[in-house]
Amino acid sequence: MEDPFGDYKPYDRPDPLSPMRLIPLFLAVSCLAGCAHRPRVLILDGQNNHDWPRTTAALRATLTATKRFTVAVSTTPAKGAPAAEWDSWQPRFAAADAVVSNYNGEAWPERVRRAFVAYVEGGGGVVVVHAANNPFPEWPEWNEMIGLGWRKPDYGDRITIEDATGALVRTPKGEGPGAGHGPSHVFVVKVRAAGHPIMSGLPAQWKHGRDQLSHGQRGPGRNMTVLDSAFSARETGGTGEHEPMTWVIPYGKGRVVTTLLGHQWHDQADQSALDCVGFQTVFARSVEWVATGAVTMKVPADFPTADKESIRSAASPAASGTAARRR
């Protein structure tokens, strides 16, 4: 497969735990303003139980509309494809500053898995969107990176949020529910790490467009910083607890963001989850942060409030608030 980025050297990425981490923050901000190249983002898709072509199109449009990224897509062979087709799939992770996974399907070939782990360990950034935390239960490194996945109760620990304090509550393996969700609905997202660059400047709570509110994710759940959460109400098929929606885990020198938001089903007429300005903002900021270590994108004027959604086509540029449909 041809390298979609050509001859390209990604940004140098500092160890996120290094005491020198503030220096690259300044450099990243300066680079985004004046560098000859933009951070390069590789979206992975090809298999998913959701409408992955539509999701990829929306994710790509969201990133492109910021005018801050160069975006390419690498599509795997279809489910059940012969080994020869998988042999031809050669994603060049090292050419990207960030990898976005919109993939939920068969296991990748061992050579691809090794290359992916090396990429993240070496400082590569990853953003995992919605059902992309579902696959690979047998891949230990992947499960360390994502922390929590769509798994049965006996797979690993569960993490919920104590609303009053924001503390993470760990439910041991085998206790409580496994992964699930009720019907899609509008719900409020609550910021839990206001000081994190991705969350900086966002309202404490904002109303998200119609989406699945997933619960009961399971895994090792180590080194997690939960960025935001949502209350999973029992009357909408939930758990009666505050479930993590977006979180960050360092892996080697790399950064991994997982978000459960962004559901898009095959026969779904609207795409309110992907067109929610809140989702678009958090997603684009997550990509910028994992790629560069900084967030320079301002909060758009049409960002949703605690009382009102804000829906804008992913292909539309951010505007002064009149471009979005609030309700």
What's this entry about, in short?
The chain is of the alpha/beta class. Helix content is 22%, strand content 24%. The protein has a single domain (22-313), classed as Rossmann fold.
SSE layout and pairing:
Blueprint: H1 22-34, E1 40-45, H2 52-65, E2 70-75, H3 83-87, E3 98-101, H4 110-121, E4 125-129, H5 140-146, E5 157-161, E6 168-171, E7 180-181, E8 185-191, E9 205-211, E10 214-215, E11 218-219, E12 225-232, E13 241-251, E14 254-259, H6 272-275, H7 277-292, E15 310-311, E16 325-326
Describe this structure in words.
- With 327 residues, the chain is α/β, with parallel strands linked by helices.
- It has one domain (22-313): Class I glutamine amidotransferase (GATase) domain (Rossmann fold).
- It has helices at 22-34, 52-65, 83-87, 110-121, 140-146, 272-275, 277-292; strands at 40-45, 70-75, 98-101, 125-129, 157-161, 168-171, 180-181, 185-191, 205-211, 214-215, 218-219, 225-232, 241-251, 254-259, 310-311, 325-326.
- The strands form 4 sheets. Strands 2-1-3-4-14-13-12-8-9 form a 9-stranded mixed sheet. Strands 6-5-11 form a 3-stranded antiparallel sheet, with helices on one face.
- The radius of gyration is 19 Å and the shape is globular.
- The protein starts with 21 loop residues before the first helix and ends with a strand.
Keywords:
327 residues; alpha/beta; Rossmann fold; nine-stranded mixed sheet; three-stranded antiparallel sheet; 7 helices; 16 strands
- The number of distinct helices, counting runs of at least 4 residues, comes to 7
Our measurement of the CA-to-CA distance between the termini, rounded to an integer number of angstroms, reads 45 Å
**Shape category:** globular
CATH fold category name: Rossmann fold
Rg is 19 Å
How much of the sequence is in beta strands? 15-25%
Give the H and E element order: HEHEHEHEHEEEEEEEEEEHHEE
Number of strands: 16
**The CATH fourth-level homologous superfamily:** Class I glutamine amidotransferase (GATase) domain
**Structural class, judged by helices and strands?**
alpha/beta
Please, how many domains?
1
The top level CATH class name: Alpha Beta
Please identify, by name, the CATH architecture.
3-Layer(aba) Sandwich
If you average the pLDDT, what whole number results? 90
Q: Could you describe the largest sheet, including whether it forms a barrel?
A: 9 strands, mixed
- Adjacency order of strands in the biggest sheet: 2-1-3-4-14-13-12-8-9
- The percentage helix is 10-25%
Low-confidence stretches: 11-34, 319-324
